[in-house]
């Protein structure tokens, strides 16, 4: 199915929504590429199936995940970390598609992060009800590099907090094609995803996919 520029699932067109110093939502930044990105997501999942990881605390995550790129983020009872191989298959993670890399670099540059070279792309898959608790992305060695996050499929409420857990988060809806960048003074801000509401998208049915690009090493 072709997602046209004028379809009803495009709630907001273009524009930058600032979230803080070094952080913003780029509305619709990946919209025209959505269908191509999703085709790559499915190809990645053929080689590295989506799975529900277990946290060190023994909790099974509601979000299903896989990765592409040189390193992939994993969690198991031993902890959170990056791994060059997929523990499920023993194989290296699928290569990061050129189009993923180019999109992430272009988005980072919009916020002035001109030398972003991600080596890890975590792919999150949310069904209605799935959520991601407030957390900091702190397993990357290069925290001078931003995080770039691409939303595809059904909408979600992104919660963007501050450096401490006490800061009341800003709630920002994210739609198909939106890209969020946070770096610089906002790089270690707490963030999360509220439980997804029941919804359907012409390209993903009941799912939301999120690509998060990081420089892990
Ligand atoms: C993340 O924090 O890793 C993902 C955020 C999102 O799904 O938008
Ligand atoms: Fe995160």
Summarize the structure.
The radius of gyration is 16 Å and the shape is globular. The chain has one domain: Jelly Rolls (Sandwich), CATH 2.60.120. The chain has helices spanning 34-47, 98-110; strands spanning 15-20, 23-27, 64-68, 72-76, 79-83, 120-126, 132-135, 147-153, 156-160, 170-174, 179-182, 191-193, 208-214.
Please give a structural write-up.
This protein is mainly beta. It has one domain: Jelly Rolls. Helix content is 12%, strand content 31%. It contains two helices and 13 strands, in the order E-E-H-E-E-E-H-E-E-E-E-E-E-E-E. The strands form three sheets. Strands 1-2-11-8-13-6-3 form a seven-stranded antiparallel β-sheet, with helices on one face. A four-stranded antiparallel β-sheet has the order 7-12-9-10, with no helix packed on it. The chain has a two-stranded antiparallel sheet with strand order 4-5. Strand 4 (72-76) and strand 5 form a beta hairpin. The longest helix is centred in the first third of the chain and has 14 residues, at 34-47. The chain is globular, with a radius of gyration of 16 Å. Residues 1-6 have low confidence and may be disordered. Residues 122, 124, 132, 149, 158, 191, 193, 210, 212 line the site of succinic acid (SIN). Residues 122, 124, 132, 149, 158, 191, 193, 210, 212 line the site of succinic acid.
């Amino acid at each position: 199915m072709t997602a046209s520029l004028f379809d009803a699932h495009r709630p907001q067109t273009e524009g930058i929504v600032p979230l803080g110093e070094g952080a913003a939502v780029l509305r619709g930044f990946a919209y025209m590429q959505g269908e191509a990105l999703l085709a790559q997501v499915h190809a990645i999942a053929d080689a590295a199936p989506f799975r529900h990881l277990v946290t060190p605390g023994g909790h099974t995550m509601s979000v299903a995940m896989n990765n592409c790129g040189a390193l992939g983020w994993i969690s198991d009872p031993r902890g959170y970390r990056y791994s060059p191989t997929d523990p499920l298959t023993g194989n290296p993670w699928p290569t990061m598609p050129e189009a993923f890399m180019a999109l992430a670099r272009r988005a980072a540059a919009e916020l002035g992060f001109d030398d972003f070279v991600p080596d890890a792309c975590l792919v999150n898959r949310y069904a209605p009800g799935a959520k991601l608790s407030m957390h900091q992305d702190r397993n990357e060695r290069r925290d001078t590099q931003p995080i770039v996050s691409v939303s595809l499929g059904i909408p979600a409420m992104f919660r963007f907090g501050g450096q401490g857990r006490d800061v009341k988060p800003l709630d920002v809806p994210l739609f198909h094609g939106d890209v969020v960048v946070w770096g610089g003074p906002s790089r270690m801000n707490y963030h999360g995803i509220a439980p997804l509401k029941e919804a359907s998208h012409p390209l993903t049915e009941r799912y939301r996919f999120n690509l998060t690009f990081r420089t892990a090493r």
